[in-house]
Structures are given as C-alpha cells and as structure tokens.
Write a structure and sequence with these properties.
Number of helices: 11
Strand order of the largest sheet: 1-3-4-6-5
Radius of gyration: 43 Å
Shape: rod-shaped
Structural class: alpha+beta
Distance between the termini: 64 Å
Largest sheet: 5 strands, mixed
Low-confidence stretches: none
Length: about 375
C-alpha cells in the first residue's frame, strides 16, 4: 500500500513539474532531463516481474540523477517532492545494498549541480543531504513489511502444524479406542457365543441341565464384559489409573495371583500395563482354561517389567485371531516399551512387557 502511495505522489509530482517548469530555460537540457525523470516514473509503475532487476536499478539511477540535476537548475516544489518520494520508494522496494547507493546518488546530483552552477548554496547542500537520509524511511517500512510477512508465515505454519498434530492425535485416539473395544468386547462376545453354541448342541442331545449351565456361563461372561466395558470407559475418561488395585482385581480364584512392587510409571505407561495385563489374563482363561495364572509387576534396573504367565490348561479354546497380541505390541510401542510373548518350557504361555524408566515420572506405584 505504501509503495502505491509513493507511486501516486511521484506521478503527481511529474505532472505538476511539467506544468510549472520553464522549458525555454537551459534548452534543450530542461526537456531532456524532464523526459528522463518522467520515463523513469512510468517504468516504476510497471509490475516488477515485467522489468529485470538490472534494468530497474539503471532506470532508477537515471531518474534520480535527472530529477536532482533539474531541481538544482530550476528549484521547483514538485521536483523536490519527486526527489524525496523517489528515495523513500528506493528504500521500500530495493535492499539496502542497492537503495542506499541510489539515494546517495540522488543527493549528490543535487549538491554537485548546485555547486557547479555558481556560489555554494547551503540550501542545496541541505536538500541533498536530507534527500539521501530519506531512504531510511523506505528501508524501515520494508523491514516492517518483511517482519509482518514472516510473522504471518509463522502463524500459518503453526496453524498447519497444530492441525497435523490434531489429526495425528485423533488417529492415535481412534486406534486406542479400537484396542479397548477389542480387549473388552471381543473376548466377552466370543466366549458367550461359544457357550451358547454349546448350549444349543446340548439341547439337541437332550441334555437340558447341561445346556442350562452353559447358558448361565454365557450370562456370566456377558456380565463380566459389561463390568470390563465400564472399566474401559472409566480408563478413557480418567487421566490416572490406580494400578495396584486394578491389577489385584484381575485375580479370580485361588489359581490366579497378582504381585506388585514399587515401580515408577507415567499415567500412559500405567494404562498400557493395565490393558496388557487384562488382555493376557483373558487369553489365559480362554486358551488355557483351568491353568494357574500369575501376574507380576516389579522394578528392573532400567525401568519396570510386567509378566503374565500361565501353565498348561486342562482345556483349550479355538485359535485366536492374533488381534489381541497385535494390540498389546502397539500399546507397548506407544510408551517406548517392548513386548515378548511365547510358550514356556512347561507347556504354558508367558507375556512379558518391559518399560523404560520414565524421564519425568508422575507417580510411584
């Protein structure tokens, strides 16, 4: 906007100077110098991409020299305005390494011409110096616009970064909810479905009492699933997890034991430990029914370790889909941990989650 204003003032200065100059004086130099200055202002109005930088610099140099010499020969208010506006324009559109020499050239043309034309005119010297100094107004405006553009770009980049992080957080949260839904519902529904299929088969075999027992077990599985679903919703809403109490609640019967030691975990690590333990215990009950299950959480030199192990079961379920193990590995990776799972030497199965020591522990469990 400011460069447009300087262009309008420069054009007005040329028009007024053309109407007030005495073109019969110092003929033909007055007309030639005025034509050069006017042509330079016209070129200045063209789009910057239409004129190469070297040509623009040369044109500006010719313009200010012509206007300075003409002003010294015929002091004119319109030419003075043109000179001052020209130096401001130079500082606004060119870098300092170009605009400052051009401004010095403009001031020197006024001073040198006045000195060569007769006795030393201190007014001409002052005008030459002040014309040169005016370039700093344009440089200051240019610097302010560049800072404004840089801040706008920074704000835009920050906005894009925030939107990207928001999308990433949303995707991560969706993945987390999907794992929780799998952990809570998949095993419950599959277990209840197996019991109902068994009840149907028992009814066809005319064993109503056994079928009733299977239906009762399906009902119990659904009730347990509802309880676990409420716990999952609570875990999604709460920032902290009472890990020792929640782990202790996993034990169901004398064959399942939970042991916890003093470990330092972040809230995210605590949630990962809880979900891995729940998944591993559920898998042990499903695929190694009747086997003893042991859950242990204890400190290690570089962090904490969770182990969930079970012996060989007296009955086995159908093969799993593998989604539970994938979910456990994803949970471990999210908090910088590592998960190991595989058979043991006695025919059982073990899951081991190793977590690094948090750099900023939130609590000790």
């Amino acid at each position: 906007m400011r460069t447009r204003i300087t262009l309008v003032i420069a054009v007005a200065g040329v028009v007024v100077a053309g109407a007030t100059l005495d073109f019969h004086r110092d003929s033909p130099w007055t007309a030639v110098l005025f034509a050069i200055a006017a042509a330079g202002v016209v070129v200045r109005c063209l789009p910057e991409d239409r004129v190469p930088l070297p040509a623009r610099v040369a044109t500006e140099a010719a313009t200010v020299v012509a206007a300075g010499i003409l002003f010294a020969l015929q002091p004119n208010g319109a030419l003075g305005v043109l000179l001052y506006v020209s130096t401001v324009h130079l500082g606004a559109v060119f870098p300092a390494r170009i605009s400052v020499p051009l401004a010095v050239l403009a001031g020197a043309s006024v001073t040198a011409t006045a000195a060569l034309s007769g006795p030393i005119d201190f007014n001409a010297i002052w005008i030459g110096v002040s014309v040169t100094a005016t370039v700093w107004a344009g440089i200051a405006g240019r610097s302010r616009r560049e800072r404004t553009r840089a801040l706008e770009q920074l704000v835009e980049q920050t906005k894009l970064t925030a939107e990207s992080e928001s999308r990433s957080s949303a995707l991560a949260e969706r993945a987390r909810i999907a794992r929780d839904l799998h952990d809570v519902l998949a095993h419950t529904l599959s277990g209840a479905g197996m019991q109902l299929e068994l009840a149907d088969a028992l009814l066809e075999a005319n064993r109503p009492e056994d079928a009733r027992a299977a239906v009762q077990r399906a009902r119990g599985a659904v009730a347990d699933g509802v309880t676990e679903a409420r716990g999952a919703v609570h875990a999604l809403r709460e920032d902290t997890v009472d890990l020792p109490t929640t782990l202790a609640a996993l034990a169901d019967g004398s064959d399942e034991t939970v042991e916890t030691g003093p470990v330092e975990l972040t809230d995210a690590q605590a949630r990962a430990v809880l979900r891995v333990a729940q998944e591993a215990v559920t898998n042990a009950r499903r695929y190694a029914a009747g086997a003893p299950v042991t859950v242990r959480l204890f400190p290690v030199p570089d962090g904490a370790e969770l182990t969930v192990g079970n012996g060989p079961g007296t009955a086995s379920g159908v093969p799993g889909s593998g989604m539970g193990l994938i979910g456990m590995r994803e949970r471990a990776a999210e908090v910088g941990g590592t998960l190991y799972a595989g058979p043991t030497g006695d025919g059982g199965w073990a899951v081991r989650l190793v977590l690094p020591r948090p750099s900023d522990p939130i609590k000790e469990l």
